[in-house]
Amino acid sequence: MTAEIYDMARRARDAGRALGALSGAVRAAALREMAAALRAHTAEIQRANAADLADAEAGGLSGPLVQRLRLSERTLCSMHDRLIAVAALPDPLGVISNGHVRPSGLRVMRVSVPLGVIGIIYESRPNVTTDAAAVCVKSGNAVILRGGSEALRTNTLLAELMAAAAAAAGVPADAVQTVRTPDRAAVGALLQLDRFIDVIIPRGGQSLIARIAAESRIPVIKHYDGICHQYIAADADLEMAVAVVVNSKCEKVEVCNALETLLVDAGAAERVLPALAAALRAQGVELRGDARARAVVPMDAATEDDWSTEYLAPILAVRVVDGVEAAITHITTYGSGHTDGIITGSMALADRFVAGVDAASVLVNASTRLSGGGDYGLGAVVGISTDKLHARGPVGPDELTCRKWVAYGAGHLRK
Amino acid sequence: MTAEIYDMARRARDAGRALGALSGAVRAAALREMAAALRAHTAEIQRANAADLADAEAGGLSGPLVQRLRLSERTLCSMHDRLIAVAALPDPLGVISNGHVRPSGLRVMRVSVPLGVIGIIYESRPNVTTDAAAVCVKSGNAVILRGGSEALRTNTLLAELMAAAAAAAGVPADAVQTVRTPDRAAVGALLQLDRFIDVIIPRGGQSLIARIAAESRIPVIKHYDGICHQYIAADADLEMAVAVVVNSKCEKVEVCNALETLLVDAGAAERVLPALAAALRAQGVELRGDARARAVVPMDAATEDDWSTEYLAPILAVRVVDGVEAAITHITTYGSGHTDGIITGSMALADRFVAGVDAASVLVNASTRLSGGGDYGLGAVVGISTDKLHARGPVGPDELTCRKWVAYGAGHLRK
Question: What value of ipTM does the predicted structure carry?
Answer without folding.
Answer: 0.94
